[in-house]
Design goal:
Elements (H helix, E strand, L loop, with lengths): L4 E7 L2 E9 L4 E3 L5 H5 L5 H11 L6 E8 L3 H19 L4 H6 L30
Parallel strand pairs: 3-4
Antiparallel strand pairs: 1-2, 2-4
Helix pairs in contact: 2-3
Length: 131
């Protein structure tokens, strides 16, 4: 059994570098905080992040150490979930069918469309005046 398992998760402009290590189920973000302190209250970010671990029955078996950058809270949580899912594939390739069925291995490719020359934003135009 390896010492740790690494994978990268992405969504929009958020990137999560994830290491799984055998442990008790702690999730540590950016070297210091846990999920609640990092993301704050409100949405169920803990459930989003732990979903791949719950699906593969590895919730209390691995500690998650992650570095998260870019994007907003929601994109970072989804990037972290994607990274954990990909790291679980490195741990055991037999986890693939469950994770694939739940849609956790698909990278969400939606990013902001670039602003075009001569337009107000990506698609919005300036108001047309005939006279």
């Amino acid at each position: 059994m390896a010492d740790s398992y690494y994978a990268t998760g992405k969504r929009k402009t958020a990137i999560a570098r994830v290491w799984l290590r055998p442990g008790t189920g702690n999730i540590k973000l950016n070297r210091t905080t846990n999920v609640e302190d990092y993301f704050g209250g409100g949405d169920n970010f803990r459930q989003i992040v732990e979903r791949p671990l719950v699906l593969t029955d590895t919730l209390g078996k691995y500690d998650v150490i992650a570095t998260v950058r870019g994007g907003g809270k929601s994109a970072q949580a989804d990037a972290l979930r994607h990274g954990i899912s990909r790291a679980l594939l490195v741990v055991d390739p037999e986890n693939r069918p469950n994770l694939k069925r739940a849609g956790l291995l698909t990278r969400d490719p939606r990013t902001k469309e670039r602003k075009k020359y001569g337009l107000r934003s990506a698609r919005a135009r300036f108001q047309f005046s005939k006279r």
